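Hi R.,

Here's the chain you asked about this morning:
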Amino acid sequence: MTTSAETMTQAPAAPAVQTRVRWGFAEIFVISQTALPALLFLPGTQAIRLPVRISPFAISLAAFAWWQLGAAGHVRPSRVQSWAGAILILLMLMLFHPSTPSVLGGVAQIGLYFAVMAPVFWAPSFVRTPEQFARILWLLLLCSGINSVVGVLQVYDPARWLPSEFSNLVLRSPMGMGPVTYRGPGGQLIVRPPGLFDTPGAVAGPAMFATLLGLVFAASAIPLWKRVLSLVFASAGLAAIYLTQVRISLVIEVLVIGVYAATIARQGRLGRSTQFVLLAAGILIGSFVLALALGGSSIQERVLTLLADDPLSVYHSARGSEFDLTFKELLFRYPFGAGLGRWGMSAMYFSSFNLLTPSIWAEIQFTGWLLDGGALMIVLYGGALIVTALTEWRVATGATYPRLAACGAVTLAANIGAAALIFTFTPFVTQIGVQYWFLAGALHGVSIRYGMDGA
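And the predicted structure, written out as tokens:
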């Protein structure tokens, strides 16, 4: 049996014959993750909000079923699939936890976790070459870039671009629209832009990807019109982040830019890394100027709060109390979990509560993991994220085929950004998590076919 290192040495830089992979399910899946939620942008769609919100996750589950039937073939399982399997087994056991409020709510929570993680199983069979992977990244840029442009236009001309109906989850909140608005240059109220969605501030997530991918393509050797378009999307992405006033998205954007620059420098592309950093610095400043013109001094005041104290103090003032609550109180109260369906959208739509098993608020992913599976869930899911990051680093720095290494660098940076959200958000029960595991699975499929031992 040959070792991984021997396999790497013996493998050619690329297959002898390059075949262009036609558009298929992977490309359609990427587009659907933006197109389906965008239906809520249309008037009168609040009545069907639940099926619209479920549909992107349902497609992931349908793809898993298709893959199981062998329609797309199979590749060697990745290491992280074992971690994912252990997580799902733990969740099924938690269904029988005495504090699970309802079987329906518990099953819905398992289904949500499964839908988010399913791409790590099926994506390797649908993404075959680095060229196809690059096409998928370009589609991701187009979708997230258009989303970001709409977000900027929603501040520039809200009468035309804001959705006619916002989510009832926001409108029915005791505080109403107050927490999701701020004062603009003329004193008018500005709604934090939702982009192609119905929840204020929701464009911040896609904007993070638009910025990273836009900068990557703008600094690449591609046709000029694509580089210019990429630069526009990168600028719109950062401007949208400023305009949503979601500070963590700005911090994570700086993080992923640094990760990508460091990774391609490690690949020996120091010149490209320097070009990328300089371009990113220019976009950071230029987009800030644009956001100031549209959003007024509130934008500057919000950004400056990041520099008001040391990073730990800033974090503690924002989400640190949730972190402390999780590890100083809830961990000792629910070391083996609090039952399934106690928090989140699954609980809201499918669980039934009583005085003995009330709903519990979870604002960061650590809290959600602890409630759903106790300390063991935090260990398992955290371990899966670490294994994934190490694998992506290995592909980015060890692949002998340059385009595969480039795809590895982008995936590593994007997925580290998504994983970092666990400290301030619950990304792994949302479409951010779906995209994370899709990119991880797709990279595994390509790396296996191009001579690496995969994830």
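Strands lie at 181-183, 189-191.

Let me know if you need anything else.
M.
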